[in-house]
Structure formats: structure tokens, C-alpha cells
Amino acid sequence: MAQLVLTLAGGVLGGGIAGGLGQSLGALFGAYVGGILDRELFGPQQDRRTVEGTRLTELNLSGSAYGQTMPVVWGRMRVPANIIWVRGIREIVRTETETVRGGGKGSAGGGGGTQTITHTSYHYYADVALGVCEAPITSIYRIWLDKMPLDPEHVDDIRTYYGDETQSPDPLIQAVEGAARTPAFRGLSYVVLENLYLTPYGNRFPNFEVEVYRGSDADVADARHLVRSVCVMPASGEWAYEPDVVRSRVRDSNINSNTGRKVADFTVSIDNLRREVSNVEWISLVYAWFGTSLDAATCAIRPAAEYAITPDRLPDTAPYSWSVMGSGRPVIGWPGGWPLVSSYTRPDGTTGLSYGGTVSDGSIVRAIRHLHSLGYKVMLYPFLMMDIPPPAASPFPWRGRIAGAAADVPGFFERNDGYLRFIRHCMALAEQAGGVDSFVIGSELVALNRIRGGAGGYPAVPFWRQIASEAKIRLGPRCIVTYAADWSEYRYHDRGGANVDFPLDALWADPNIDVVGIDAYFPLTDRPRAVYDKAAIAAGWASGELIDYYYATQDDRDLGRRGLDQRRMPINDPFWAIKNIRWWWENDHVPRVGGVPTGPATAWVPRGKPIWFTEYGFPTVNCATNQPNVFIDPKSIESFAPYYSNRAVDRVVQRVAIEATEQFWSDPANNPASPLYDGPMVGRRFVWCWDARPYPFFPTLTKVWSDGENFRLGHWIEGKIGNMQLAGIVRDLCLRAGLAASEFDVTALDDEVVGYVVTERKPVRDMIAVLQTAYFFDAVERDGVLVFVKRGAGSPITIDPNDLGASENDSDRSRVKVERTQDTELPIAVDIVHLDEGRDYQSSTVTVRKQVGQSESVNTLSLPVVLTVEQAQEIGQRALREMWQGREAVDLRLPTRAIRCDPTDIVAVPIDGVWRRIRLTAVTYGKPGLVLLRGVATDGGVPEFYTAPTGSGVLPPSAPEPVAPVRVELLDMPIMIDNHDASASSFYVAACPVGIGRFRGATLFQPTADALDYTVAAAASLPSIIGTTVTELAPGPAWRWDRANAVEVQLDYGALQSLADERVLAGGNAALIDDEVIQFASAELIAEGRYRLSRLLRGQRGTEHEIAAHPAGSRFILLDPARQPRPNVSVSRIGIEITWRTAPVPQGPSGDLSGEIVFTDSGKGLRPFAPAHPRATRERASGDIQLSWIRRTRIGGDSWLNEVPLGEETEEYNVQILDGANVVRPLRVAGPSALYTAVQQMTDFGVLPASLAWRVAQVSRVLGPGASTEITSTF
Fold first, then answer.
1. Which of 1111, 1127, 1114, 1113 has its CA nearest to residue 1159?
2. Would you call the peptide bond into 319 cis, given omega within 30 degrees of 0 as the criterion?
3. Residues linked to residue 128 through DSSP beta bridges, in sequence order
4. DSSP letters of 606-661?
5. What is the reported pLDDT for 1094?
6. Rounded distance, CA 321 to CA 363, Å?
């Protein structure tokens, strides 16, 4: 009989968060209690045997989540989910039958008989609805069960509800409960998991956690509501744009479904776009082939595959095969197929693909149709990626550098592998998809377009006009055709000497070109620090660098780095102002020779066509608006940070810059209407970029997508553009408190908040206080309005020194009163406990320490806020700075006529002859005409603190990972710790991962007595540190430091460290090499995973007999009883050779990653150690020899008692008298001494021997004699 209990454990979030904000909501249901399970194992019959698994006989639901406080979330957050509905558990019985042929004699033909074995197993499923948080929310990303990402194979369907007021009931709940009894749960976001498989979770409901995203409200004019058009990339990746799931037939796994749901990544990403940037109307689908050279004469333009296959693996994917222009990937040994993309070596020494392969033709067609079905208009944007790997002098360059002579241009377009083949194929794809709304004929081929012919013409331009004509004919008159010019080329070509042509004007004026396309990465600011002022950034579109001035040299610009005024050259003629789009659009274009307008105007018609920003955007890096066109990609020669940038992650500047851009061009005063067409000067603005690989799986799954490392500082907007603004959260909280919108002002709060959660009922004041701690703002009432202001912002109010010292009665005329806190009372460090964005929202601590000081105290700020490591560092640095700057409290007395101020204002006041900045904390009006001010010092401001991180700041990966293969070692050795001395087997099991995937544990299976099945013998839940020696370990002394020898080991898993001698002597750094237990004090890392071990102790734990020359290739296991379990195996199996099976959890003994180990347990762990200090003394009178020794113990040997524990049931020894290799007399004694009489000596040798060879071993009642000590004594 047995009992199973199905329990629902409480969800836990951020255990280190103060005030209960991060505490668990608790176990909502208590427990689901299962009934008693009556299992009956039928004995084997002659021809049939049944093996029946565990079965549940009853399951009762005992609670609900109604009445529980649901979390309130702003931004992105991982929250515990609570069951709000469940349908009864369903049992599935699976029966498998196998026939086993027996041995021995049989009745027919002499063969053995057969036995049929029936295996019956029970599996349990449930339908469950999970309440997530207050609604409405924007998206639900990931779901965790017992801290592990939900495996899509464990659930049939996932339906998400975002909690708006029009939410309909779930159809499954409605079908079960009836329409009248089914709530819609409006105002609550929830998830329905249909047919959830419970068996992998121990036949119980696991902990559920859900990653949610709540963006700003629809009435907020922020970036995610302002953007109307986006570019979708990555442009390459064989199945990156495939709306259907594609499966690898080779690996038997989904290629393009990495989100834990049974849908394609592209579909998930576009679904996220629909919700998170909900006003998008146009999508530019970027599609790339690869260029092979920067020389126009030799540059081939072609598709490429990611890998080759062998003929036996065709087809390698289903339901579609990869194909471009009718050709597939290369097949080894067969002709044909497209080439492979190049590989490159990363900084860590690993090798990866430089790019994803070209998107399969069918995927492009299906992607366009899918986008159209969702109501989007689609622009197809053909794109060239330069696949030029090292050792090229300029690896992975920009396509705009393709150059050559005028004679090379026709070949660039017309060769069999030229540009025309590529662009015509793109037109064909658009035709197959049923058409596109816009088509880009090319982009950013700056150097090619500036190749000038002998007659002064530009030979590339006629080809662009030809392509535009073909596109119009093939795609129809309604398809908007353009060329996407780089921001530096759309305007003119300065050939030097003030000689200027307009090579693209003939293209812009061509009737087949509908709009002027510009990839508009113009510099909008030019300051040594990041600009967050939206008005200043917006003004950059109509002023500043490249309109009002330019830099003649880089040195002139770089004066700003040294705090000097930059040397700017004024632009007095708008003709030269590259960024002055309006002047270019509104005027005729006349070439210049020597700076003088010469000849007729070009074919451009002023105001004749709209301008589209075919790309614009900003990287999320400090000072991005100074140079938006650059990007950071370590493998590319083009990798640069913007001017003045310190490469700090800065998502605020991206959001603010997009908002400023959209608002600027949405204003008719900046974007005039044309009298020649119906529309403004600047029409569509496509933001670069939204990725087809869904956030947050990209960028965290770096094993799937290696360019995830570039995400932090790149132009991507998913996971960034929609981050909540602090102003929006405080606004929401004020409205929750009952304030009208006119009663508060949050416009000064421009910080970004990745995520904030409240999980319990509390006053709004307390909720805002947490944000004040993290983002350093204050609140003050001004004219009946609650105004939120950034701490220390704004210019200081200067106080006239003559006004200081006013008093009520002339009794206190002190001008300024200063109180200073003792330095020893201030903290030397601050711990910022937060939810780490880069570690799947786990609680993390960042410590910021003051470099000098006598204080020893540490302050802890616990914040239920999602932060990056850099943000936590900045908060800690500012908090510590404020604590130390604020140690001076200042009191001022002034006449009211002298100043009008409020708390939070900054005043400048002379103190002891030095002007100081004081932040006011209180303003009190005394008698008429007198105001008392109190504040704290803020001198020095808050400078930037930043240390460039070495990693990506993300936690890879967070989707279901494959199970890693395991290496398993069986350790036949002495017991490690005393309480392991039991009547069971004495060996240990060590396991570690040896391949890609997650280590969930390893299982050792032992065969049943009839060898027909396997049972679990041991489970190693933690990985061991295992490796192999790569050098020989020579013999050495036992039990004392071996300073002469060293050995090198290569680890399969884990790391080693050096320890002080005393820690080694206390048992640290024990390891097994072959069968010898050693210890080491020094572990020197000499290569990745390779260590040199020295200062050794040899022959430990009774293994002195194993000291030998261990050759290279010997196994190495760091011993740790917490990681190396003892199997539950009977001692009756000691000495029997057994074939064991091993497998990684959760596989069984017959899984595809299972293995076999043939191993005999010798029982070393149960055998006594060899006695020590043997002695033999002859009595002169009798001639008898007294033999003695010191008993050793395998249990409690470190005791300092007079006697160590016996370790055996009785004390008994075998003594053997030797004559050469022969035993001439055995003795059995019950104590640590024996008498070898003179009579016995004469009998054995005929004389009294002058020397005696003998050995002694302690005896185990279970296994007999243990290890022996042998000696030759001389008398």
C-alpha cells in the first residue's frame, strides 16, 4: 500500500525584497490530497508477467484563489500565478507488451521458451486556468513550472487573456461549467493551459510563474503609440520569417519554434508587435543576399545556406525544404546547391556562423501573406550583407563601400551572379505572394553610385532606373517603388574643390520612383553627454550639426572630450547643409563647379515627391543621438560607438529620440504639405528595427542566435521601446489614490522603469516611496497641485548674502547654521537588492562601496523593481553619494521678500566664503516677513558612474533546453563520511554533463534479479567535477606532502580552486585518480578547463596501496558526498559483475542518451583499512616473537580520543607468517597483537629465523580480511 499526495506549492518571487513586496502569495489551495493507492504486484507466471506503475485513485480540489490579492504590474515582471479554475484530473493508462525469449531446453526444436511482459503505466493530465495579475496587460511571454520553462510537449494548448473590459469567457471553461456559470474574468489577466501533463512534475500541480508585460496606456503619447512603421529583420536566417513550424528531421526538433509554444517564432514576434506597438500600419520586411567583395568587378551576389547535409538525410526538414531560386543546400558528394555562409572565430575562441542563411523562398512568400492577413501593408526591402570574413583586411564591411571603375559597373549588375539576378528574384517573390505595397530596389550603395564615368555621368543610375521600371511593370502601378539612399548620399556628390553633382536626382525624378527613400540616421545632438531633452533632440532635425555648422576635422570635434569648446565651421549656404531636408525638397538643384552654380537645374521637381524614411532609429547606447548610424558588432570592421559615448546601455535615449522624431515630423509647422501631391514632405518613417525572433527569447537564447550579444547596445526596439516611463507609473498610482489628473504633475519624471510590482495591499504613498528610493525624485505641493520633481534638477536659486541672518527678535542673528553628521555614523557601502533583468528576474544584489572612510556600516535598499546591473550600480552610487553629501544639514533665515521657493528647490548660498548648493527639505514661514529654510548639501552634483560590463547581461537560455548527455563514473572506494557505513553497497555514483543542454541529474539503473527489467539504484541530482589526467602522476610518499610531483587534468565539467594547507588537512580538495584518493593544495589554471595540481597528499582514506604511476588518461573526480550518492544495492551483489545502465534525468534506462557500465562492486568501502606501525620483538629467554600493530579505522578516524571507533562488529585480525610468497602459518587473534612461539618457528623454519616476513589485516564479518600491511622484521 502507498499514498500519493498532490500538493500545490506557493509561488515565490524575489525572496530578498523588503516589506513583503516580493514575498510569495502563499499556497492558495493548501494541498490537493490524493487517496490511498492500492498497488498489487502479481507474481510471475510461467508465460506471463505484468509490471504496473503508480496510479492515483482519487483527487479532491480543496481550495481556490478567490479573495487573494493579485499582483499589480507595470512594465515587465515575473509573477507567481494562482489557479483560479481546474477541471478534474484525467488518467491515461498506457500498456506496452514485450516478448522475451528464455534460455535452456525447450520442447520444440530444442529452443528456449518465451515470456510476455506487460508494462502498465499511469499518466495524469489536467486543464487549469491561472490568474496572473491585475489587468489590462499587454503581453504574456514565458511560463515557468517549478522554475523550469514550460515544455511545449507537456501541454496541448495555451490561451492567454489580457484582462480588458471586453474579454470573453474561455471556451473550454464555458463548455465545462456552462455559459451561465462562466465568468469572463474581466480586469484579470489569466492563462489557460489545456491538457497539462502532470507526471513530469511528480503528479502534482507545480509552482506556476508567468512573465508579463504591461505597457503604457493608449492615451499616452509615447514611442510605442507614436510609431506607425517598422523594419522587420534579421534579414537572414533560413526560417526566420517562416509563419509555420519547421522541424529538423535530423535532430527531431523544431528549428523555428523556441518560445515554449507550438507556434513559429515569426508568428509570436509579429503577435507581440501587434500588441506592444499597436499603431503600426506598415512593415518593411528586410530580405538579404550576400556580397562577396568590395570590388564591383568581382563582387558576387548570391544566397547561402547554413549547413550541408549527406544524401541519406534528404529531406532534412519538414514540412518544407530550404530552397532559393529552385536550388537547395549543398549535399555532400553531390554537385550543385548554394554555398555556405562563412564562419568566424569569436573572442572566446569558439566558432560560429557569420550570418544566418538566406531566408527560404517559400518563407518569404508565406510571411508576406501572413502580414497582409493581419492588416499590415508590406514593403519588401532587398538588402546586401557583405560576407567577407577574416583574414580580410576589412571583415564584414558595409555594402556602401562597394566601389570600382566605371567599366566595372555594368558587370556588377549584369553578371550571372550580379545584382539584377538578385533584385529580379525579389520581384518574383513579391509576385508569388500576391504583391506588396512597396518595393525597395536597392539601398545604401554609396560608393557604387558615386562612380563617375568619363563623360561625367554616373553609370549606376541608369541601372537603378531600369530596375524601377521593371518593378513598376511587374508589381503594378499601386506598388510604391523607391531606392533607400544613405543619409549621406541622397542629396549630392561633393567631388572635392566645391565641385558638386546630384547623381541620384535623375532617379528621384524618374516617373517609376514614387517616393524619395532615405535611411535617415542624421546626427541630432552634439554633446559630450547623453541628451534626454525631447525638445533639444527634436530641434536637431532642423538645426545643429550639418545644418548650422560642421567639423573640418575630428580633432575639432574631440575638443569637447577635454571640456573645451569645439571648433565648429559655420554653414552659411543651405545648399551644403546635408541635414536640411526641407531646403533640398523645396528647391531646384543646380550643380556647382568651384562652388559656383553652373548649368541648368537637375530633373528634380521641387516639392514633387514625398520623402520616406526607409530607415531611422537609435542604438540603446549612451549618446546615441550624436551618431545614430553607428552600431557595435565586434566581428565587423564597421563597429563603432557614437561620438562621446562611454558604451553604457541607455534605453531612455532611444525612446526619447523616437518620440522626439515622431512628434517633430507630425507637426505641420515642421513638415509642410505639398501643393503637387496630397501629403506632407516626410511621409512614412520606418523605425529600425523589430526582430522576427521574439523577445525575450531573442536575445537570451545565444546558443540559438549568436548575435544576441549585440542586442544590449543595438538598434532593436522590442523589449525596449515599450518600457514603462516613471511618469506613467506615478500617474497611475495618483489616479488610484483618487486624485484628478489636474491635481498632480508628473511631467518632470523621464526615467525608464523596466518593471515594478506590488503584491499586497498598501497605501499608494508607500508604493510611490519605493519608486522615490530607486529613481530619486520628490513631491511638493504647489498652488494646490502635487508636483513630482527630479531630485537636484533645475538651476539653483541664488541667495543674496546680505539677506542672510534675518530673525524674529534679533536674538539670533546667525547667518547660516550647519550641522554635520559624524562620518562614522554614515555607511561605507550600500547593497541594492533588486530583481535582475539579466537573470530572469531573480533577486540579485549589487554592492557599491566608498573607496575611503572609517565607517563599517552597510545600508541595504530592497527594491521590487527590475533593474539591469548597470542601473543598480548607478542607484547605489547615487544613494551613497547623497548620504555623504547630505551629512551637512543647513538652516537659513531670510526675509520673505528675498526669495520664493519650495521644498526640493536648489539654492546657492555662501558658507564660510564658499558658494554651496543646498537642496531644500523644508520651508517654514515665521512671523510676517520671515522665512526659515532647511536643507542638505548637494555639492558636486551626481557625476556619471559606469564600468563597462564584460558580459551580455542576459541569462542564457530561458526556453526549454535539450537534455545534456552525461558522463557517469562508479567509484569503488572507501566511504567518504562516517554515516555512510551501512549494510548497503559501498560505492558511489558521480555524474556530469558532457554536451549541449541542461543537466537535470543522472540515474543509475540496476537489472532486476531475473534480468528482465531495471530499477533505480541511485540518482545524482547535482553534477560532479569530473575530468581526465593529461599527464602521468608518478608514485609518491603516502600521508605526507608530496612536493615533487604534479599532475595536469582536463575537466569535462566544473572548476577547481586552491586551498590553504589547513583546509586541505581538514579534508578539502579530495579527489580520486584511478582508485587512489589524493588531496591537493594548489590548482593552477593553465588553459580552459585544464589545471595543474601540486602539493599533494597521497594514498588518503586507506588507499596507500593504490599509489602508483597513474598514466595520462586516468579518470579524475573531485570527491563530494553531497554530489555523489551511494546506490541502494544489496551487499549480496558485492563481487558480482553487473551491467548497469545510466541515463540523464528524465530519461529511462532505454532512452536515446542512456549508456551501459560493466562494473563489479568490490566492497572497498566496507573493508577495514590496513593496520599501521607493525612491530616484531623476540624475547631473549623464550625465543618467542611478539607481533604488534596499531589498529586503524574507516569511521571516526579524526577523533582525538584515546581509542578511535572500532568500525566493525568485532575486533579480529588475520596474521600470516610468510616464507617467500608462501604462507607457512596463519594466526587469528582478537586484539592488536599476536604471539609467534619458538615452537611454531622451529616447526615452520627448522630454526629460529634471524628475520621474519609477515603481514596483518583486520577482518570484516561481512567481507573478511581487509587491506593488509606487510613487513620484514630483523632480530
1. 1127
2. yes
3. 86, 193
4. TT-S-EEEEEE---SBTTGGG-TT-B--TTSTTB-PPTT----B-HHHHHHHHHHH
5. 94
6. 10
First-to-final CA distance of the chain? 68
Tens digit of each residue's pLDDT (9 = 90 or more) over 462-520: 999 999 999 999 999 999 999 999 999 999 999 998 999 999 999 999 999 999 999 99
> Would you give the DSSP letter of residue 800?
P
At which residue does the C-alpha cell 545502465 appear?
Answer: 1141
Cis ω for the linkage preceding 136 (within 30 of 0) = yes
SS (H, E, C) 744-767: EECCCCCCEECEEEECCCCCHHHH
* Dist CA 555 CA 109 (whole Å): 98
Q: How far apart are CA 156 and CA 92, in angstroms?
A: 15
* Helix%, strand%, coil% for the chain, nearest 5: 20, 35, 50
Element (H, E) at 478: none
- CA torsion 755-757-762-768 (nearest 10°) is 0
Q: Is the dihedral of CA 472, 474, 476, 482 positive or negative?
A: negative
Q: Which fold has domain 1172-1274?
A: Immunoglobulin-like (2.60.40)
Convert 894-923 into a string of H (helix), E (strand) and C (coil).
EEHHHCCCCCCCEEEEEECCEEEEEEEEEE
- The helix (H) or strand (E) run that includes residue 1163 is none
Separation of alpha carbons 341 and 304, rounded Å: 5
CATH number of 822-884: 3.30.1920
Query: Percentage of the chain surpassing pLDDT 90?
Result: 52
**Which cell numbers hold the place of 342?**
562563412
Q: Do β-strands 343-345 and 351-353 pair in parallel, antiparallel, or remain unpaired?
A: antiparallel
Q: Residue 1240 corresponds to which cell in the numbers above? A: 611454531
Kindly state the cell numbers that stand for 1008.
532486476
Contact between 472 and 512 under an 8 Å Cβ cutoff? The reply is yes
> Distance between CA 1268 and CA 86 in Å, rounded?
66
Q: Was domain 232-544+579-713 assigned CATH 3.90.1490.10?
A: no
Residues with Cβ within 8 Å of residue 1185, at least 6 apart in sequence:
1176, 1177, 1178, 1179, 1235, 1236, 1241, 1252, 1273, 1275
pLDDT digit string, tens, across residues 913-932: 778 888 888 888 877 778 88
Three-class secondary structure of residue 1240 per DSSP: helix
Whose cell is 500498456? That residue is 95
Q: Tell me what pLDDT residue 114 has.
A: 60
Residue 277: DSSP 8-state:
S
Distance of CA 1091 to the CA centre of its chain: 28
To 10 degrees, the CA torsion angle through 851, 854, 856, 857? -90
Q: Return the domain boundaries, the chain.
A: 2-215, 232-544+579-713, 547-574, 724-790, 795-821+886-952, 822-884, 966-1164, 1172-1274
Tell me which DSSP letter residue 1110 carries: B
DSSP 302: E
pLDDT beneath 50: ranges in the chain: 1-66, 102-112, 940-959
Same fold, 724-790 and 822-884: no
Give the whole-number percent of the chain exceeding pLDDT 70. Answer: 88
| pLDDT at residue number 943 | 36
Question: Facing residues of 1144 across strands?
Answer: 1002
The closest alpha carbon to 437, from 723, 229, 724, belongs to 229
> What three-state secondary structure class fits 108?
coil
Task: Count Cβ atoms below 10 Å from residue 98 Cβ, excluding itself.
Answer: 11
Give the domain 724-790 fold: Phage tail protein beta-alpha-beta fold (3.55.50)
